[in-house]
Amino acid sequence: MALAGLLLGGCASAPAPQDERPQLLLATPQQVDPQLEIQLAKLGELLQVPDLTDEQRARFLYDRGIRYDAVGLRTLARIDFNQALQLQPNMPEVYNFVGIYATQAMEFDQAYQAFDAVLELDPTFIYAYLNRGIALYYGDRPELAVEDLTSFLLAEPSDPYRALWLYFAQVELDPEQAKLQLADHRSRMDESQWSVGLVDLFLGRTSGGELLASSREGLSQQGELAERLCEAYFYLGKQARLEGDPGKAMNLYKLSLSTNVYEFVEHRYALLEMRQVAEAAMASAESEESL
Predict the structure, then answer these.
(1) N or C: which end of the chain has fewer CB within 10 A?
(2) Among the CATH numbers 1.25.40.10, 3.40.50.720, 1.20.120.450, 3.30.160.20, which is that of 90-210?
(3) Global confidence as pTM
(4) Which pLDDT score, from 0 to 100, does residue 13 have?
């Protein structure tokens, strides 16, 4: 890993004071686990066995799909998930991935249908509330998103990530009230969690530089820095968007994607965020041309 002395906000005409110039922390992108590659090969062999039942084949397709997803091969994963559902249409975990992929592709109606199917098959599948809430949030249905994300938060009220996604949906409805509620949720969080700093970022209790510096503290395993930076840069990008700085947000989302932490929610939706920023810029340009 290395520190790159770069401004988060682009070019400046004069050097900023040292304490106002946060440095970008870079980590080695997450590498594919060789055991995962071996598992993919074995599952490919198992799927060639001719006398598998539909249930067995569907399960192996799902198992291979989640491993494709973990290494970023999402098109192959999506193919496996769709084939699994054709063989066994009562697998809520598969519908959950189908909904996530539909959200990433901004196919929101398909995403809602998939998450509805998850909850019809298994009402206790709590992550369907998160994923449907995110789909509703990106699909410009903040009221419904708040309902789902509140249900998800109530299952674990001290989770910083659950509080943040609820906050993003609530900001669309009432920014001041959203911040008050986020502060209330913050009071129930464990101070020892690094992720509490993400909440503090949106409450104005910590800076981007302080958040990035804290990401290096207390690391316990290989790859953990990449995971933290995936999250940190995504939420710094969200903050930049909320503050009306889309250019800065785009650069931060790119940094989040560069970590290769494919399974994280933040990595999944960084590209979608970038698409929204680009579409907003294009719409703004077209509006100006028409004047």
Answers:
(1) C
(2) 1.25.40.10
(3) 0.89
(4) 35
